[in-house]
């Protein structure tokens, strides 16, 4: 999503707002006047920038690309000027809130060079890499093309190893042409980061967590050490089951799992292959997690929209079909909205329904990757998605709405505080809500008619862990790669080799066919060309269990954590809302403490949730030895 880490999406009005620093010692009143002016300028810049970016992602063409590049250039210039001016107040004793705004302004610096020519070059590259990803397609020998949304569906549902390899290789070819531009993009960002006093852009990215970059890295490693043993058990179990299904195609001597077999284009979440790895013990096998895709299709169809499956490329299908897809997609979003309103949140504004992009338009390229927006930073909330009726999108809808409800909750804060407590919080809200999509909740809303007994918890937990636990080392590998690219530890000549070394090290997955430096596989993952930091999702996977537990407690729930749903609990909603309204106005540790009682990233609740599964996996793996 486009969260205006204050400085990312800004633009315009620089010369109108920047003022010549005076030589007299500055006062608190001057600092206040400066911050008022900065907040106003950043608000306008973020709004202008979001309008342009929205167009660039929903109408990909040369003009929208040039416009968004220009606004980002102006926005970065504004931020750099404001940061420079803010240093005038470095030695002034300021009230806590004002000092924090100054600090956030400075640590949120864009990794952008002062030199106008270099800055323009950087923003052009950023826009064109985003556009290249959005336009990316895999076309087979017969000329049939698939965009990323079609590729995702194919990778989720296909169970033929050769077919999977073909489409995997096809989609990954999207990255190769980006390689040179990406290399230059990194160089330019590093020039900017160094000008701000950072070692490199990775150092700058890791500075935004109310602790030093080194402390932050240590926190991440500490949390991973808590969770890695569970991941290893899951990996061992899944690998065995894949070998049972695919034989030699899954059986690598080095113990890696071939990445194309995991039900996801990037092997980042594995829930889609639940059918392949489900428990075989009949006592457990009888309990199948609710087939949400079927249940949703049925319930939405009952609302009088027939669901069609569009397997052809965008452009196929009639107007009528498109209308039905849109109506079904809106229904999907309404499930998410009604969860939030059950907690006491106001419904989404009318403009949300008018301005969002819910389905893939038939006539043009768009960036399909889901994102949530608050274009005017107040109430022009939108999502941009290419929704299909299935499990993954059901979760993603809740994820995106988490962003939107957060954005609206902090819209009374000064602009500099209109952000998540940290970026991991922003990514965790909707996911924490989605953890409440338990069988009992699904029964309440008519998506299943039976609530399974306690013995069904293992199958259900396995389904959830395939998404939640499997994801952790993917997120770590991705940003470790990027941090090492930024620091120069990984040289451009080794981009792809290092990518797979890290994927193997953290995830234990390997590419289906030999890769070389003629490939650029990181480019086939949206967050690399679009330059969205990724460790935020690692944090979010962990925070979401902390938030979920806190809301379960607030709702008065007693019982095993994985069976809690706080749907309809105003007490849980109030607790959540307090956290959301604070935005980034205080250190995240304080926000977390108010919400959960703990002031640090803690894998405890996640381990508590999966404790029964962890034991079961250990038994399965021991027995299989
Ligand atoms: O990018 C996203 C969201 C938008 S912020 C759909 N996610 C990551 C991804 O898709 O790679 C959510 C999970 C991880
Ligand atoms: Zn998100």
TrEMBL record:
One Pfam family per UniProt: Peptidase_M2
Keyword Zinc: yes
Superkingdom of this protein's organism: Bacteria
Residues making up the signal peptide according to the UniProt record: 1-18
BP GO annotations: proteolysis
Keywords for this protein: Disulfide bond, Glycoprotein, Metal-binding, Signal, Zinc
Protein name, per record: Peptidyl-dipeptidase A
Organism this protein belongs to: Terriglobus roseus
């Amino acid at each position: 999503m486009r969260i205006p880490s204050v400085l990312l999406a800004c633009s315009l009005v620089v010369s109108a707002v920047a003022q010549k620093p005076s030589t007299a010692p500055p006062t608190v009143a001057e600092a206040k006047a400066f911050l008022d002016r900065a907040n106003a300028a950043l608000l306008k810049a973020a709004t202008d920038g979001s309008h342009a970016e929205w167009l660039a992602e929903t109408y990909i063409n040369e003009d929208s690309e040039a416009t968004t590049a220009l606004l980002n250039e102006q926005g970065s210039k504004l931020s750099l000027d404001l940061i420079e001016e803010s240093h005038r107040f470095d030695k002034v004793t300021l009230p806590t809130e004002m000092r924090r705004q100054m600090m956030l302004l400075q640590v949120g610096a864009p990794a952008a060079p002062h030199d106008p020519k270099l800055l323009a070059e950087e923003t052009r590259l950023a826009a064109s890499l985003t556009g290249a990803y959005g336009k990316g397609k895999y076309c087979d020998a017969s000329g049939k093309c698939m965009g990323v949304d079609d590729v995702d569906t194919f990778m989720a549902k296909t169970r033929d190893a050769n077919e999977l390899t073909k489409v995997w290789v096809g989609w990954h070819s999207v990255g190769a042409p980006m390689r040179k531009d990406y290399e230059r993009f990194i160089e330019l960002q590093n020039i900017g980061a160094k000008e701000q006093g950072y070692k490199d852009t990775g150092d700058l990215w890791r500075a935004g967590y109310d602790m030093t970059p080194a402390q932050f890295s240590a926190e991440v490693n500490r949390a991973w050490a808590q969770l890695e043993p569970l991941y290893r058990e899951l990996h061992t179990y899944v690998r065995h089951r894949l070998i049972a299904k695919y034989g030699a195609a899954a059986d690598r001597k080095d113990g890696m799992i071939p990445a194309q077999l995991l039900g996801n284009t990037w092997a980042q979440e594995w829930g889609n292959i639940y059918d392949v790895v489900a428990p075989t013990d009949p006592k457990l096998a009888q309990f199948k997690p609710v087939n949400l895709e079927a249940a949703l299709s049925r319930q939405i169809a009952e609302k009088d929209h027939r669901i069609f499956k569009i397997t052809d490329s965008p452009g196929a299908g009639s107007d009528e079909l498109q209308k039905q897809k849109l109506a079904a997609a809106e229904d999907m979003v309404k499930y998410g909205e009604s969860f939030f309103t059950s907690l006491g949140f106001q419904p989404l504004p009318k403009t949300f329904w008018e301005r969002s992009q819910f389905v893939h338009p038939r006539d043009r390229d768009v960036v399909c990757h889901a994102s949530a927006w608050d274009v005017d930073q107040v109430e022009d909330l939108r999502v941009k998605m290419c929704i299909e009726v299935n499990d993954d999108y059901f979760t993603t809808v809740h994820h995106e709405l988490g962003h939107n409800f957060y954005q609206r909750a902090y819209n009374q804060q000064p602009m500099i505080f209109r952000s998540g407590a940290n970026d991991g919080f922003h990514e965790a809200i909707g996911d924490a809500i989605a953890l409440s999509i338990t069988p009992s909740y699904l029964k309440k809303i008519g998506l299943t008619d039976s609530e399974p007994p306690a013995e069904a918890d293992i199958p259900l937990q396995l389904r959830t862990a395939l998404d939640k636990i499997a994801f952790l080392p993917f997120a770590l590998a991705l940003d470790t790669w990027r941090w090492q690219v930024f620091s120069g530890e990984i040289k451009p000549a080794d981009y792809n080799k290092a990518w797979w070394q890290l994927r193997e090290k953290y995830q234990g997955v390997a590419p289906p066919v030999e890769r070389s430096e003629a490939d650029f596989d990181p480019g086939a993952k949206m967050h690399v060309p679009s330059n969205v930091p990724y460790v935020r999702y690692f944090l979010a996977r962990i925070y979401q269990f902390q938030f979920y537990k806190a809301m379960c407690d607030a709702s008065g729930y007693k019982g095993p954590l994985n069976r809690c749903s706080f749907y309809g609990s105003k007490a849980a909603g109030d607790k959540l809302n307090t956290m959301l309204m604070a935005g980034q106005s205080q250190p995240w540790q304080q926000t977390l403490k108010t919400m959960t009682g703990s002031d640090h990233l803690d894998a405890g609740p996640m381990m508590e949730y999966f404790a029964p599964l962890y034991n079961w996996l250990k038994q399965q793996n021991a027995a299989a030895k």
